[in-house]
C-alpha cells in the first residue's frame, strides 16, 4: 500500500494532519474507507417520488459491457468501478436495471433541462413522429419554422437567423467557418482550458491536450484563461483581456476572424470567466475586424438561472451564438444563430444539412422552450441553484479538501485539492467521492483538466430536497474519508 500522499509543510502540523486524513492514493481507498452501511440511520435518505419503473427484462450490465467491447469503439469509457446500467428515467431521477432510483445531478452532461421523459416533450415527439418523421428542408414544414421563430425571440439584438445542426460540435464548426468567410481572415482566438468539440476545426479551438489528437489544427491562438481560481490575475477580467490584444498585435496580421468562448467552461471544470472579461475582449476583436462567438452549448437555455444565456451575465451581445444539449432535452439537436448580415455568407456556395431542422427534433425543441416558460424553470434554476451553492460553500468551510465552489444556477463546480495553498489536484479523492455518492444514490459528473472537479448540472426541475440529499450525501462520504 502506498503511504499518505506527501505534502509540503505550508501551515501548522495540526492542519497538515487534518488534511492528510482526507488525502490518499487509489490503492488506499479500501483501507481508509469503511463499507457503506445501508441500514445506518445517519445515511441520507432520498426524497420521495411517486413513480416506479416497469420491470426490466433486458440484458445485464455484464452482457452490455461485452457487446460494447466487441462492437463499439475502444475509445468509449464509463464512470464508476461498477458501471451503471440505466434503463429508465423520470424528471430528475434515473433508474437502474434493478429498479433502484438515483438523483441525476449530471443531467446527461447538462443536456436534460426539462427532466427525463418530460410528458410535454415526449408528447410533441410522438405526435410529430406519427405524422411525419422526416422529409427535407427542400420542402416546407411548419415545425422548423415555428421553432426558429421561437428561438430567435429568446436572443437579443439582430440575432435572428437560425441554422439547425445535429450537435454542439457541428454548430461550432459552422460558426467558425462562417466567421472566416465573413471576415476574410483565418485567425481564431479561443481560450486555454476551453472545449468546443471534437471535429477538426473545433478540436483546434479546444484548449486542452487531453481532447486534441495529433492532427493538423491551424489558425487558432489560445489566450490566457480568465479563471478566477487558478488564473494568474485572479478575478481581474481586464488584465486577462490584455492577453487577447497581445495575441492580435503579436500573433496575427492585426486582423482576426473571430473570438470563441464559453461563458462558463463545462468540460474545463465549470469555470466562470472573470468579471469584465468579455466586454473588453469583444471590443478588441471588433477593432481587429473580427466577430465574437458565444458557445452556449452547456450554459444556455436558462441553466444559469440569472439569465437565459450565459453571455448575458457579462453584459455583451455576440455576433454568433451556438447551442445544443438542453435545446432538445436529449434529442440530437444543435443550432447556430446569427445576424442576417453574417448569415448571407453561406449563399456563396451551397450549404445543406440533411438532418438539421428535422421535424421531430425541432418539434421537441419548441416543446422545450414552452416547458421552460410554463414551469418557470429559469426561476427554479436560480432559486434552487443559489440554495445549493450556499450549502456547498458551507461544506467548503467544513472540509479542507474542497478548494473552490463556483458557477451559477444549476451549473455548479466543486474543485477538490489536497493542499489549498498549492491547489494540488485531488484526483483519486474525486473518483472515490463520486463512486461512494453513486452508492448512496447520487450521480454527479467530473471534469477539469486535472479531473478533480465535480460537475453539477441537473435537470432544471431539481428541487431543494434533491439539493439537500446531494449535499448530505457528499458530507456523509467526506466525513468518512
TrEMBL record:
<keyword id="KW-0663">Pyridoxal phosphate</keyword>
<dbReference type="InterPro" id="IPR005814">
    <property type="entry name" value="Aminotrans_3"/>
</dbReference>
<feature type="region of interest" description="Disordered">
    <location>
        <begin position="30"/>
        <end position="53"/>
    </location>
</feature>
<dbReference type="InterPro" id="IPR015422">
    <property type="entry name" value="PyrdxlP-dep_Trfase_small"/>
</dbReference>
<dbReference type="Pfam" id="PF00202">
    <property type="entry name" value="Aminotran_3"/>
</dbReference>
<dbReference type="GO" id="GO:0030170">
    <property type="term" value="F:pyridoxal phosphate binding"/>
</dbReference>
<comment type="similarity">
    <text>Belongs to the class-III pyridoxal-phosphate-dependent aminotransferase family.</text>
</comment>
<dbReference type="InterPro" id="IPR015421">
    <property type="entry name" value="PyrdxlP-dep_Trfase_major"/>
</dbReference>
<dbReference type="InterPro" id="IPR049704">
    <property type="entry name" value="Aminotrans_3_PPA_site"/>
</dbReference>
<keyword id="KW-0601">Photorespiration</keyword>
<protein>
    <recommendedName>
        <fullName>alanine--glyoxylate transaminase</fullName>
        <ecNumber>2.6.1.44</ecNumber>
    </recommendedName>
</protein>
<dbReference type="InterPro" id="IPR015424">
    <property type="entry name" value="PyrdxlP-dep_Trfase"/>
</dbReference>
<dbReference type="GO" id="GO:0009853">
    <property type="term" value="P:photorespiration"/>
</dbReference>
<dbReference type="GO" id="GO:0008453">
    <property type="term" value="F:alanine-glyoxylate transaminase activity"/>
</dbReference>
Amino acid at each position: 500500500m502506498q503511504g499518505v500522499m506527501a505534502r509540503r509543510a505550508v501551515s501548522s502540523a495540526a492542519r497538515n494532519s487534518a488534511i492528510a486524513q482526507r488525502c490518499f492514493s487509489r490503492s488506499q481507498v479500501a483501507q481508509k474507507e469503511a463499507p457503506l452501511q445501508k441500514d445506518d440511520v445517519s445515511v441520507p435518505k432520498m426524497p420521495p417520488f411517486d413513480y416506479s419503473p416497469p420491470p426490466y427484462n433486458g440484458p445485464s450490465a455484464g452482457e452490455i459491457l461485452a457487446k460494447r467491447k466487441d462492437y463499439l469503439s475502444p475509445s468509449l469509457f464509463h464512470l464508476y468501478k461498477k458501471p451503471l446500467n440505466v434503463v429508465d428515467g423520470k424528471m430528475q431521477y434515473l433508474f437502474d436495471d434493478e429498479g433502484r432510483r438515483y438523483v441525476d445531478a449530471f443531467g446527461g452532461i447538462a443536456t436534460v433541462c426539462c427532466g427525463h421523459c418530460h410528458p410535454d416533450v415526449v408528447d410533441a415527439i410522438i405526435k410529430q413522429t406519427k405524422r411525419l418523421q422526416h422529409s427535407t428542408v427542400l420542402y416546407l414544414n411548419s415545425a422548423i419554422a415555428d421553432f426558429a421563430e421561437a428561438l430567435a425571440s429568446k436572443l437579443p439584438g439582430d440575432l435572428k437567423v437560425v441554422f439547425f445542426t445535429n450537435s454542439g460540435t457541428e454548430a461550432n464548426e459552422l460558426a467558425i467557418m462562417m466567421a472566416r468567410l465573413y471576415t476574410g481572415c483565418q485567425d481564431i482566438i479561443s481560450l486555454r482550458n476551453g472545449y468546443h468539440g471534437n471535429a477538426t476545426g473545433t478540436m483546434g479551438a479546444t484548449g486542452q491536450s487531453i481532447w486534441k489528437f495529433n492532427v493538423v489544427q491551424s489558425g487558432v491562438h489560445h489566450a490566457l484563461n480568465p479563471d478566477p481560481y487558478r488564473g494568474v490575475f485572479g478575478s481581474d477580467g481586464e488584465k486577462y483581456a490584455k492577453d487577447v490584444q497581445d495575441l492580435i498585435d503579436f500573433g496575427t496580421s492585426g486582423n482576426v476572424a473571430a473570438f470563441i468562448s464559453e461563458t462558463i467552461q463545462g468540460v474545463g471544470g465549470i469555470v466562470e470567466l472573470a468579471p469584465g472579461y468579455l466586454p473588453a475582449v469583444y471590443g478588441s476583436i471588433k477593432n481587429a475586424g473580427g466577430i465574437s462567438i458565444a458557445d452556449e452549448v452547456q450554459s444556455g437555455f436558462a441553466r444559469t438561472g440569472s439569465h437565459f444565456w450565459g453571455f448575458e451575465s457579462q453584459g455583451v451581445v455576440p455576433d454568433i451564438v451556438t447551442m445544443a444539449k438542453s435545446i432538445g432535452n436529449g434529442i440530437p439537436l444543435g443550432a447556430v444563430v446569427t445576424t442576417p448580415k453574417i448569415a448571407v455568407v453561406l449563399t456563396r456556395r451551397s450549404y445543406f444539412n440533411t438532418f438539421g431542422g428535422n421535424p421531430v427534433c425541432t418539434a421537441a425543441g419548441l416543446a422545450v422552450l414552452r416547458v421552460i416558460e410554463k414551469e418557470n424553470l429559469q426561476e427554479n434554476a436560480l432559486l434552487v441553484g443559489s440554495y445549493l451553492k450556499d450549502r456547498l460553500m458551507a461544506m467548503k468551510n467544513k472540509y479542507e479538501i474542497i478548494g473552490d465552489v463556483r458557477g451559477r444556477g444549476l451549473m455548479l463546480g466543486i474543485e477538490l485539492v489536497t493542499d489549498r495553498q498549492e491547489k494540488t489536484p485531488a484526483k483519486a479523492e474525486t473518483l472515490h467521492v463520486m463512486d461512494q455518492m453513486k452508492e448512496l444514490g447520487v450521480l454527479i459528473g467530473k471534469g477539469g483538466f486535472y479531473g478533480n472537479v465535480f460537475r453539477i448540472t441537473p435537470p432544471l426541475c431539481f428541487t431543494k430536497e434533491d439539493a439537500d440529499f446531494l449535499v448530505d450525501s457528499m458530507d456523509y462520504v467526506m466525513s468518512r474519508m
